[in-house]
Amino acid sequence: MTQAPRSADAPIVGASAASATVPRIRIRGLTKSYGSVMANDGIDLDIARGGIHAIVGENGAGKTTLVRAIYGLVEPDAGSIELDGKLVDVATPAKAIASRIGMVHQRFQLVEPLTALENLTLGDLPHRGMFFDRSAALSRARALATELGTSMEWDRPVVHLSVGARQRLEIMRLLYRKADILIFDEPTSVLTPQEADDLFRVLPRLAGQGRTIIFITHKLREVFALADRVTVMRRGRVITTVPTKGSDPQALASLIVGEHFERPELEAVADRGEAVIDVEGLSVCDDLGTLSLREATFTVHAGEIVGVAGIEGSGQRELVEALLGVRQPVAGTIRLRGRPLQRASVWDRRKRGVAFISEDRDGEGACLAATLAENVLPLERHDPGLAGGGRLRISAIAAFARSVLTRFDVRGAGPQSPARALSGGNLQRLVLGREIHKTPTLLLAAHPTRGVDVRGIAFIHEQLAQARKAGAATLLISEELSELIELSDRLLVIFEGRLVADLPAAEVSPERLGLLMTGAA
Amino acid sequence: MSGIVAETGIPVAGQETIAPPRALRLLRPLQLSGPFVIALLVGAVVLFASGRDAIGTYWLLAQQSLGGTTEIANTLVAATPILLTGLATAVAFRSGIFNVGVEGSLYVGAFAAAWAGFTLKGLAGPLLIVVAVLLAAAAGALWALVPGVLRARWRVDEVVTTLMLNYVAILLTSWLVNYYFLAPDIANSMSPMIAKQARLGSLLPPSQLSIAFVVALLVTGLYAYFFSRTRIGYELRMTGLNPRFARAVGINLGGAVLIAFAISGFLGGVAGGFQILGVNYRFIDHFSPGYGFTGIAVALLGRGHPIGIVLAALFFGALSSGGAMIQLFSDIPLDLINILQGTVMIFAVIELSRLPFVKRWLRHA
To answer: CA-CA distance, B353 to B242, in Å (whole number)?
Structure first.
């Protein structure tokens, strides 16, 4: 491998310079536009066999379009894709699978009520005569698990598997179908840090077996931990492709963004105000009726951000849902500014200034089929100026929506466009705008920066800091430990549904937090 | 229909096809007219196979439904109940509720209107008509609130309850008319005639075209206004498009379910009431040829859009009035009309934009 130049601006074209062999995938002039937006604009890219190739870039840089084109989900307007030097037409995923290309999507493509084994063999059942040959299926499944260096509960319905296990199952399903190009679209965005570590062990193993791995990510840390080569994309173009070895993370970060930017420094802790929310002995059950949050007691004050650290699924979601009012607690009291809340409806709480950023942006945070204006309106739908007498004032609503969209820098669509047209980062800005354009009393922020690019993260952090300064009490749920430590005044650590620690954020190291989160301390 | 409303129509699962909006706009009339054209082609094959002249039959059908003032008036009369049941169904669909029980509301509404018509004979004409229609609406709404409460309170699946309650309504009214309100001078299962002053006059004799059709058009306008310009309409629409989103922003889902059911049943009751006051003048056991069910087809075919619903109702109205007439003039069986209706339905639910050749066309447009 050649050493990358320090200023990684000059693109190094192709690994072919170093290795004489034909690249596993060669893309030339790949172009795809959606209306006036060039999602991919003349992409040239070579991907070598047996390596891990990362593709990084901001939201809307065209990464997903590119890999979807390789997998046959997107038909390009122009350009060619060669596998091992042969021109191929991967017009559909079926053709891609036949060409031994497989993809692990952000949303898993598993049949939830079926078992892991059934999901694995679906579409190509081992059989003896007309009967399912279960033992043959099981031995092939076990062989795959061994190959991957992992384990699997094969008889468990997928619905009861953890997210990490589901992802491993997806990978094994690709191997079962003999894929040797594996594409991952933001594989760690849905994983807990521990599950991500497992994945990081699996990927090099697969590459070591001669398979070619392509993965999309926002996180430079993962690029340097895993990838051999990295391609930076911006606005539909490939900016550069360099080996990770010897590259400078800082230089790469500035290439991704395209201009200089800095993370905002949070102001020092202000005097904390009155207690906004008082939770005492709160216990909440999940959908299956198991106790997910046990006797939680804590307080959040005005002008304070309290972070909740924990492995995903430790009761954070149930806590937030109980505070928002969409889930009835089984025991305990919640007081908002001293007044009991546990019987209040969601709307009663909303009226009293409870804001909510959902961890499920597409499914709960926004209504994708509705317009941007309709997505900004709901909390103001009883405002006499916008809907006096129950009648919607269309022009006033549009003006209001425009002001929120402008203030929160939502780009890419106007008030009358469907929310579906926005990229994830812009949609999150919209959600943020709807929830905090007026300073909330209590802000429930669940994974506010999940799946958002670097610039978007900085913006969201800045907005959270401003809300805090304006006196909002914020409960911040996140899986990014650095985010929790940087933003929070205090940290609550949750483990198996119990709050096991309440610490000033300034005194916590990520290592200590990791131990607390896993119940090891 | 501009304003802040996305023309989303009835939510169809998995609408993630991305296409340039201009091409989509071009596709739209095609999407709307496609099912009719394909249905007519299939019907032509059936006619041809049974040795009949397809073009001649269609010509006769067109003449008998649109060929003159009276024919058009008859088509509008036939379109009136299914326009109302179509709107009733669409209100529920857009709110995320699969109410297939409009037929039941129609029956209890019709019975209530008939009862008012033959009982409250002392009231003056316009007053009696208003009372009868309001009673019909109230009966239809109350009937629909039964599955509404079950769904809102105990999450009972409304498809099962509304479908089954149709039979309860049909048999309940049958029992009432046969055992308690049977017309004394007649062998068939009918109630007494309603008072003369309760009957809706004809706008175009000899047809039975009445004020009911005009009211149905007005209701269509209200339907459009309700969903695009009122807060409650907005809340129902959000509930239909994404219930979790609606719940998180503080929309009361149970309340939305009840409102949607009540409006849906209200309109179903009005449809039944007008059919009594404008066409039948008495309650007849099992009188509906499935107006409520055709309403489902109308709502789906119109994609929840008010103009689409009117067009779909007119189409089915023309089929049924023309179909009834061509039997008098030819040996074409009524079953052919049913085949046409069924075929239209099947092709109506096909997403044209998903067909491969349309996809290609979209890309080039």
So the answer is: 23
Kindly state whether B124 is in contact with chain A, defined as any CB-CB distance less than 8 angstroms.
no
Over 60: is that where the pLDDT of A124 sits? yes
Is residue B295 pLDDT above 90, yes or no? yes
Query: pLDDT tens digit string along A141-194?
Result: 999 998 888 888 899 998 888 888 888 999 999 999 889 899 998 888 777 777
The residues, any chain, with a CB within 8 Å of residue B49's CB and separated by 6 or more, are: none
Check if the interface score ipTM surpasses 0.90. Answer: no
Is A179 in a helix, a strand, or coil?
Answer: coil
Q: Which residue from A467, A412, A469 is spatially nearest to A445, judged by alpha carbons?
A: A467
Least CB–CB distance from A369: residue in B241, B244, B363: B241
Q: Please tell me which of the candidates A358, A373, A420 has its beta carbon nearest to residue B4.
A: A373
Q: Closest by alpha carbon to A436, among A341, A348, A357, A344?
A: A357
- The model's pLDDT over B229-239, given as tens digits with 9 standing for 90+, comes to 999 999 999 99
Among residues B260, B286, B291, the alpha carbon closest in space to that of B274 is found at: B291
Closest-approach residue (CA) in chain B for A75: B363
Which residues of chain B have a CB within 8 Å of the CB of A69?
none
B6 with A366: Cβ contact below 8 A: no
Q: Do A346 and B248 count as a contact with CB atoms less than 8 A apart?
A: yes
SS3 for A252?
Answer: helix
The per-residue pLDDT for range B145-185, each reduced to its tens digit, is: 999 999 999 999 999 999 999 999 999 999 999 999 998 87
| Mean pLDDT across B52-70 | 88
Give the integer Cα–Cα distance in Å for A154 and A165: 11
- Residue A344 and residue A324: Cα distance in Å, rounded? 10
Q: Which residue has the tokens 């969409």?
A: A326
**What is the pLDDT at residue B338?**
79
Between chain A and chain B, the number of residue pairs with CB atoms below 8 A apart is 101
B218-231 burial by CB neighbour count: b if 16+ within 10 A, else e?
ebbeebbebbbbbb
**What domains can be seen in chain A, in order of their start residue?**
107-179 (no CATH), 274-353+441-521 (3.40.50.300)
Output the six-digit token pair for B289: 């040829």
Judge: A363–B248 Cβ closer than 8 Å, yes or no.
Answer: no
This prediction has a pTM of 0.75
A379–B15 CB contact, under 8 Å: no
- Ordered alpha helix ranges (H), A177-248: 193-208, 220-226
Please indicate if any CB of chain A lies within 8 Å of the CB of B14: no
Based on the number of CB atoms within 10 Å of its own CB, is A368 exposed (0-12), middle (13-18) or buried (19 or more)?
Answer: buried
**CATH number at B74-359:** 1.10.3470
| Chain A touched by B225 (CB under 8 Å) | no
